[in-house]
Amino acid sequence: MARTLYKYTSAKFIDSVLSDGGMLKLSSPSSFNDPNDCYFGISDENLKRSYRMIMNVAFICEYKNDPRYAKSKSFKTAYELTRKSVYVSQVYDENPVINIIIKQYLKTRKQLSDYFNRYKNQFDETYTKIIETLRERSLIGSLTKDNLNMLMWSHYADKHQGICVEYEFEDENGLLDVVYSDDTNTFDLYTVLRYIIPAQYFGVKTTNEMDPECLDACYLPFLRKTKEWSYEHEVRMIFNLNNNSKIINKNGIWFYPNAKVKSIYLGCKVTKENRELIENKCKILNIPVHHISIKKGNNKLHLDD
User: How would residue 267 be classed by pLDDT, with cut points 50, 70 and 90?
Assistant: First the structure.
């Protein structure tokens, strides 16, 4: 089902917006005007559960081929229990059998300390950086449901000197509504690791379709904003530079190229030069141009058409 959404931007991007049938400009979270946007952490409890899960799984995978343990019935039981959980329940919480095995084969305090420190360092270096990498490698396409929003024209369209682009998307896949809440924005590392671990430790092939629960864990932190921003009625598209086949770079700026431009709205303070330039470009492409105005004494924007 097709969906119509809007993007406020500067008039200087008109060529990029109109090229190749329509493109949507993308932004990095580091350039957002809200420093709290996409700035999420991990709760202490989630971090502990994640570390416990990694330690249990890593232990049995590391020692499964060790001659000292290969014939151990209890060790085989621990391994099979954990491996089975990958396919069945995907519950990796602390396993009593593994705790017994650890204490049985790592008998001295130094052995235990060395083991825990090694995996703690690996955990800190590898997994807790997932959220940093996600944020650094993510690009956001910000859209809105409202094309006559006074504040949006002021904040994102050069103080009404810019434009508002009306896009039509053929389907709603990838269009995600922002959630406005004052709750703490945290990243569910535990759920994400449950998706990664089967492939990393047990050789289970992952499909291109991610588990819905894992998708929620990955994307929800990018969709949470405080209630003060609810006036934006924002809808987002989220892309990762590690898998950028759907986006293109033009002169150092990233764009999503499959956004059909339905029409262009001109701000009430757009310059005569930009108005004529945009009208001429849109006339060639048969794209309607609408004019926004504001009447004296009236605090609402009007569509002159």
Answer: very high
Q: Of the candidates 136, 270, 240, 127, which has an alpha carbon nearest to the alpha carbon of residue 188?
A: 127
HSE of 191 in the Cβ direction (CA atoms, 13 Å)?
16
**Quick check: 97 and 78 in contact, CB under 8 A?**
yes
Of residues 81 and 285, the one with the higher pLDDT is 285
Q: pTM above the 0.85 mark? A: no
